[in-house]
């Protein structure tokens, strides 16, 4: 089995190495949204919500460069700041507080308190159109980000960069799936059940006392608790379960933009609104944001094959899939895009 | 500009180097011919004019074809009825969404693809991963070339050619070698017809008359006059509903501005540019200072 894994993984790596990213940019025609760094954070929040995107690159007119990205995590941190007594950020200031000011403040804060050894990079992490798929995937994994902007400049000094694409692991996984789709029969490892492969994060079973607890929340838990958990556990989503541990829904970082609807963030208090209510805000009859195939959470069984799980994760907007028990829908584990890539690239 | 009907293959170059790709690309010529073959044929020529070779970095310079393959073999194939990017009917289908992302679409539709062997031989057949190398399909001979039309779902395949009993591969096309040293060619079948940039590059637009290059930058009082009317082709902005069909070349590299939300003092700037054969629309939101 080990041998099979290694053969197939080396095939995947060879494939990823040989393909410049540009060949597999998702569409014939695509649209990317960028924000000026001098935009007030509040307006940026609304734009992300209205356009249905979780991340946008930031453009600085003075420097003539892309200088960073604004993500859902930024909003989570901002909202938590607002809620903190004695914080420097108030509601009114949100109207004029620019993205660049926020990023400055954040850098300042993280230099003070970050002792995890990870360098806070002020330079934009980006990739080029001719970087191989493997380089782009490694870039994303190593920097623990979800999307990397693909920039191209025809000038030697990198001036006048063109924004081409926002690359993510799901796009790359889609290429891999497409490449192996017609040879799935000849690669036995793809047919193996995921429970037999060291992949994903699983709920510790009885008798495994040293494993880390698997984070879940009940629907009536406060939004503040959910946001704290997202930040502290450094995960991108938390499954919401009922008293029997059955999967009901999921709260992801990107769900935070739903609070921009009708300026809900200005009217609520993080600790007084439940996750359930927060999710209701974002979902009206016509909104399909966050849904794939009619479902917000993707589920699978532990007996499902690796191939099936990979094909599901290759769909845009799906970043994780929950492993549940048949029938009861009890959460048994989760597999995310980064889990799959760490497995494919043989990274710890 | 004489382009009122907006048909892409008749666009004139406006002197800024926008290429007039569709007029020259073999696939559009094929499309216009009233043959029974479908319009989204992706052509592989043994001289290496696979459209994606154009995108590889300079050190893998693709071989240019001296004779673009204009007429596919007359194997009868029903025309595809999907809203694909046929150059002829693009105008009509402009509002329909492009199905390059079609994961939700019903089971894989076949896309006609041609494989050509031009290195001689009497009896040429092909075996491929589309059926796990089980069957051999004979290529039809026409002069020195042997070719076959296959209808395959979108994806990547390996194949090899059996020429007079010997296993061969096409040297100029992408290929892959396995652990045992066997070489197979790679076939990448796409849902859409990529543009053939090669032919566009060979099309040299005549330069604009010399005196037009001496226009002075607008002075202060020029700004008090009304701006000149935008040509009708540019009225369709990129900031309108996010259309996912291929944009017309005439809107490329033009900056659009949308000032919709007076209360929010925000503007959206939109620009569509072409990078190789991809079209990207970048929408930048910027605050408007009073």
Automatic annotation (TrEMBL), chain A:
Q: Which UniProt keywords apply?
A: CBS domain, Repeat
Q: Which domain of life is it from?
A: Eukaryota
Give start and end of each CBS domain: 25-91, 209-272
Pfam families linked to this entry: CBS
InterPro entries per the UniProt record, alphabetical: AMPK_gamma/SDS23_families, CBS_dom, CBS_dom_sf
Give the family from UniProt: Belongs to the 5'-AMP-activated protein kinase gamma subunit family.
Protein name (Swiss-Prot/TrEMBL): AMP-ACTIVATED PROTEIN KINASE GAMMA REGULATORY SUBUNIT
Q: Which organism is it from?
A: Salix purpurea (Purple osier willow)
UniProtKB/TrEMBL annotation, chain B:
Tell me the ranges covered by the Association with the SNF1 complex (ASC) domain, including all copies. 206-288
Q: What is this protein called?
A: SNF1-RELATED PROTEIN KINASE REGULATORY SUBUNIT BETA-1
* Domain of life of the native organism: Eukaryota
- InterPro entries noted in UniProt: AMPK1_CBM, ASC_dom, ASC_dom_sf, Ig-like_fold, Ig_E-set, KINB
- Membrane-spanning parts: none
Q: Where is this region: Disordered?
A: 1-82
Q: From start to end residue, where is composition biased (Acidic residues)?
A: 8-19
| Pfam families given in the database record | AMPK1_CBM (PF16561), AMPKBI (PF04739)
Which is a Gene Ontology cellular component entry for this protein? chloroplast
Q: Where is the signal peptide?
A: none
Q: Which family does it belong to?
A: Belongs to the 5'-AMP-activated protein kinase beta subunit family.
* Bias type Polar residues, positions: 34-57
């Amino acid at each position: 089995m080990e041998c099979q894994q290694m053969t197939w993984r080396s095939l995947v790596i060879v494939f990823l190495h040989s393909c410049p990213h540009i060949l597999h940019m998702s569409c014939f025609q695509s649209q990317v949204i960028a924000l000026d760094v001098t935009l007030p954070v509040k307006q940026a929040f609304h734009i992300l919500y209205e356009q249905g995107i979780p991340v946008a690159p930031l453009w600085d007119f003075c420097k003539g460069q892309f200088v960073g990205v604004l993500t859902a995590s930024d909003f989570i941190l901002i909202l938590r700041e607002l809620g903190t007594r004695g914080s420097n950020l108030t509601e009114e200031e949100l109207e004029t507080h620019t993205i660049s000011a926020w990023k400055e403040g954040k850098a300042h804060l993280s230099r003070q308190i970050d002792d995890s050894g990870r360098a806070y990079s002020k330079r934009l992490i980006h990739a080029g159109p001719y970087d191989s798929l493997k380089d782009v995937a490694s870039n994303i994994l190593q920097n623990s980000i979800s999307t990397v902007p693909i920039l191209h400049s025809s000038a030697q000094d990198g001036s006048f960069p063109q924004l081409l694409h926002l690359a993510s692991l799901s796009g790359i996984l889609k290429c891999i799936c497409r490449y192996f789709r017609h040879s799935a029969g000849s690669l036995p490892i793809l047919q193996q059940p995921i429970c037999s492969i060291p992949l994903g994060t699983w709920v510790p079973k009885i008798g495994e006392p040293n494993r880390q607890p698997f984070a879940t929340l009940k629907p009536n838990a406060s939004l503040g608790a959910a946001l704290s958990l997202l930040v502290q556990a450094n995960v991108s989503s938390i499954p919401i379960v009922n008293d029997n541990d059955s999967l009901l829904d999921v709260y992801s970082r990107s769900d935070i933009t739903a609070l921009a609807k009708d300026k809900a963030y200005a009217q609520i208090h993080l600790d007084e609104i439940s996750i359930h209510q927060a999710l209701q805000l974002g979902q009206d009859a016509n909104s399909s944001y966050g849904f794939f195939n009619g479902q917000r959470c993707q589920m699978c069984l532990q007996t499902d094959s690796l191939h099936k799980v990979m094909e599901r994760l290759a769909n845009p907007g799906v970043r994780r899939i929950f492993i549940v028990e048949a029938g009861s829908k009890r959460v048994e584990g989760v597999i995310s895009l980064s889990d799959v890539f760490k497995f494919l690239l043989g990274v710890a | 500009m004489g382009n009122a009907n907006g048909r892409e293959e008749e666009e004139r170059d406006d002197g800024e180097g926008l290429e007039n790709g569709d007029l020259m690309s073999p696939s559009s010529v094929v499309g216009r011919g009233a043959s029974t073959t479908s319009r989204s044929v992706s052509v592989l020529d043994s001289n290496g004019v696979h459209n994606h070779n154009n995108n590889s970095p300079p050190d893998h310079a693709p071989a240019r074809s001296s004779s673009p393959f204009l007429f596919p073999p007359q194997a009868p194939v029903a025309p595809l009825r999907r809203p694909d990017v046929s150059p002829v009917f693009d105008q009509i289908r402009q509002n329909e969404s492009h199905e390059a992302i079609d994961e939700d679409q019903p089971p894989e539709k076949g896309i006609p693809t041609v494989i050509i062997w031009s290195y001689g031989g009497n009896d040429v057949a092909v075996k491929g991963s589309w059926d796990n190398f089980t069957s051999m399909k004979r290529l039809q001979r026409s002069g020195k070339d042997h070719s076959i039309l296959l209808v395959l779902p979108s994806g990547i395949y390996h194949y090899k050619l059996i020429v007079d009993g010997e296993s061969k591969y096409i040297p100029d096309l992408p290929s892959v070698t396995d652990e045992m040293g066997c070489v197979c060619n790679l076939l990448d079948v796409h849902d859409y017809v990529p543009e053939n940039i090669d032919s566009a590059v060979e099309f040299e637009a005549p330069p604009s008359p010399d005196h037009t290059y001496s226009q002075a930058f607008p002075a202060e009082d020029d700004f008090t006059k009304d701006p000149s009317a935008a040509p009708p082709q540019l009225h369709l902005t990129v900031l309108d509903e996010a259309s996912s069909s291929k944009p017309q070349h005439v809107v490329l590299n033009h900056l659009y501005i949308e000032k919709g939300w007076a209360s929010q003092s925000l503007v959206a700037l939109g620009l569509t540019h072409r990078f190789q054969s991809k079209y990207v629309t970048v929408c930048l939101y910027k605050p408007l200072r009073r």
